[in-house]
Amino acid sequence: MESVNSLIPDDAQKTLIFFVNGKKVIEENPDPEWTLLFYLRKKLLLTGTKYGCGEGGCGACTVMISQYSKIKDSIKYPLYM
Length: 81
Hints:
Layout: E1 16-20, E2 23-27, H1 36-43, E3 67-69, E4 74-76
Antiparallel strand pairs: 1-2, 3-4
């Protein structure tokens, strides 16, 4: 089976920058095969998010995603339906 890394172009941006609980996280070469759940628990040692059913149905692995606007000084949450 082909590795996920082989599908990423050589000139692709390989640094992932995001915020978790208000702290900036810079991951230089993120593993594309890691789930967000695995990253939060194993790399950042944030164990509040749990592994449940393994397919997203039970909600145990739910993570809230938001966007902060400096201009409006507010947080925007995406709406999913």
